[in-house]
Automatic annotation (TrEMBL), chains A, B:
SUPFAM superfamilies: Thiamin diphosphate-binding fold (THDP-binding). It holds the Pfam family TPP_enzyme_C. It comes from the Bacteria. One of its GO terms (molecular function) is flavin adenine dinucleotide binding. This is Acetolactate synthase large subunit. The keyword Secreted does not apply. Keywords: Thiamine pyrophosphate.
Amino acid sequence: MRSGIEVCFANPGTTEMAFVAALDEVPGVRAVLGLHENVCTGAADGYARIAGRPAMTLLHLGPGLANGLANLHNARRANTPVVNIVGEHASWHLPYDAPLSSDIAALAATVGTTRTVRSRADIGAETIAVIADARIHLGVSTLIVPADYQYARATDAEPVPYEATARPVVSADRIEAVARQLREAGRRATIVVGGNGLSRRGQRAAGQIAAHTGAVAYSETFPATAERGGGLPDLDRLPYFPERAISALAHSDVVAVAGAEEPVAYFGYENVPSLLCPAGSLTHLARPHEDAEQALVDLALALAADGASMTAIPSKETIDSGAKLTGDFVGKVVAARLPENAIVSVEGGTCGYPFYTAAAGSVPHTVLTNTGGAIGQGLPCALGAAIAAPTRPVIALQSDGSALYTTQALWTMAREDADVVVLIAANHSYNVLRTELSRSGNAEFGPQAERLTSLDDPLMDWTALAAGFGVPAYRAGTAGELDTALSKALADGGPHLIEMSL
Amino acid sequence: MRSGIEVCFANPGTTEMAFVAALDEVPGVRAVLGLHENVCTGAADGYARIAGRPAMTLLHLGPGLANGLANLHNARRANTPVVNIVGEHASWHLPYDAPLSSDIAALAATVGTTRTVRSRADIGAETIAVIADARIHLGVSTLIVPADYQYARATDAEPVPYEATARPVVSADRIEAVARQLREAGRRATIVVGGNGLSRRGQRAAGQIAAHTGAVAYSETFPATAERGGGLPDLDRLPYFPERAISALAHSDVVAVAGAEEPVAYFGYENVPSLLCPAGSLTHLARPHEDAEQALVDLALALAADGASMTAIPSKETIDSGAKLTGDFVGKVVAARLPENAIVSVEGGTCGYPFYTAAAGSVPHTVLTNTGGAIGQGLPCALGAAIAAPTRPVIALQSDGSALYTTQALWTMAREDADVVVLIAANHSYNVLRTELSRSGNAEFGPQAERLTSLDDPLMDWTALAAGFGVPAYRAGTAGELDTALSKALADGGPHLIEMSL
């Protein structure tokens, strides 16, 4: 376990007891208990996004891995290195098909690479290999370890210190080709930045390119990690709904992606194209696994754009403290109150989009979003980020429907005294689904559709849920109340929850 | 949807909106919203165990199915018919690998049979086929439906009414062979009853056989559905820990399984055999999918045992109402207070085993247990049972560690006004893991092992969690307090939670 891995987000069972005992025998790995595996895997994702190196998860057999798959799906879409150690029945017990037996490798293969330890002698080499898998592929890698092979010491093998992946550098030819395209297209061009292009250096270069050529620069819609504020250009996110994204890109002869996936619709809609940019416009500056940051810097140089600049203007807007909270007001209050170097884990659209827009001119901060769309990611991701960066305050800006998937994360925040302020946008509905139902031509919902998209019967009491998990909580109904509660929570330190009545 | 399926446990997303709209257009299917897919799948399992026919689940893409896999694993091990409808991206959108795309079929294959709708014309036939799959295999079957094929009406196809599976009948030769073995073995024989052998009729026959031959009769350790009380013989469960089970079976020349899986250790332990019965002793009266009930009745006839009888004696023990609660006291109080025809969903050992023993002589009731070992099954299963049998009171006797996996079930209980009394055995630890750590030779736990098996920092407040989800709650520290709270909760009707401090 001495391969640069320092944290293990764990929910072990009987087949992992040798690992649990080893955590005390071999120093250097801090175990963090999650009450559900999706808390562990989401926290590992958040940890790696901030720490730049993987955390480990320790999961119990097939069902334990299954419970954590949704956030591993998100980690896969974030290109985050995550290393799962999954216990298996003792090798000689497997043929008996005991109740907890299932096809662990098949589950693991849906989210990344998989290895299985086949003998006691192999555990050291396989442990090193699974960490290398995560590093090289920037993804999820899983090691399945039968219980009888866990007693061999992984530490007998020579430890290999973890090195961050050296992302492949984009060739000078490619840079020159895209520079030529952008020069020709002028204002009829768009750059979509993602991956490590959303570092401060990458975005500054993107801003220079945009200012110099007249191209429009967007961030990908759901970045894993985006630096924001502190004088960075305001790279707004490409709109979520395809009609709006298509319209945003319609003027472009060239759409250059830099570390982002190709712009495709989140869902398919009848008579709406899946590819959002005009036919023939797409060009790749850097693939998601390549060094988009360096490519943008090189492109700015090639265009002689590095003298230009683009800086977001801090908002001077004052907010009426008596105003009833809306998504817009929440975004503005949080943007105004943001501590320097805060990390903001954003899940859900109600407040997420307004905050992103409002905080462009704020102090420097880092935004983490839900990359894969499997909901229940925001709270675990915030937890993992707080453990990766104990000196940075973390805010989880969270819609209620998705928070309900992994409320157990609150307990681990309390146990680890994590500096996370959880802001729950309590609109008591699956609002995005109500929008989608309307979009698909259902102007009036029948009683069952109504009931399947509403969370208000009974009303969830978030302050009670937080108290149940040991987290102090407040309620806010106006912009002023939110501001007061948020200031107090940030000043006090440790985990807090604020239920925002929308 | 007119194939005998009346209830749909749903957590839909954008790709299932056509189904949601159809629920209002086509009458006859009641939609029940779960806040997490593992609530939906566990409820479908509990529903089918009591109703004898499947419920449907409606799940959103790969991550939605992944979230529900743990309780589908349990349903698979319970041989329960469950029909999953999982939405997929529109067929023409799939090649774009949008963020929520993943290998749904691979996930579904780990728990049962899988079908994918390949054209708009096929949806009717495939819907009927997936229901038939669940019925014929007594298991989990999944239909993946791309969004663009959902607009075709499944109802255009001829509906096929759901018929309970006719379990294959055991041959007369097999009955006669086992009868001969039992006659020869006399007291040196054990019968392990499972599957539909745990019906009232099956257990009465097992009791007759045991009384007549001197054989010992056990229930399988984790039955899906076991009738208990009301004069049935006390078929105790085969012990969980292998050493105790091996010792219980050691005297047997013949171990006849009737509807139960072969007796194997739950986990493999060094130097403990996986097969729990003596070499050469195992004989099959009925396989888990066969008609064990009829086989037991036929066997009793073949042995001329049908005149014999074995009846559990109601306990006359009085309980000191001031006694501090222990697992034993909880078992006795609940057994004494049990309403006639109650359903008891048992998850976790702390109170589960004592209750099972104590309730042998109680009023007639049905016990549901966690068949697959994936924890977080008890509350959803209780919810599904309550929806299947609205006139029967349901008690969920639940350990705290496993309840924390699917606390969201409380909200659906409140919303549906389900008659479920949730009893939480709050020992604030993963007690079974502490036992397992000790078993594996760790007399003293290191600080990390201690921390990974304790749930007391911070203490969970179950009454606050219940309040958060809209369920009234009490706390009980003594036998008398539990008795009072349980009586009141049962008298009031609707969902209640009682935190039992152990």
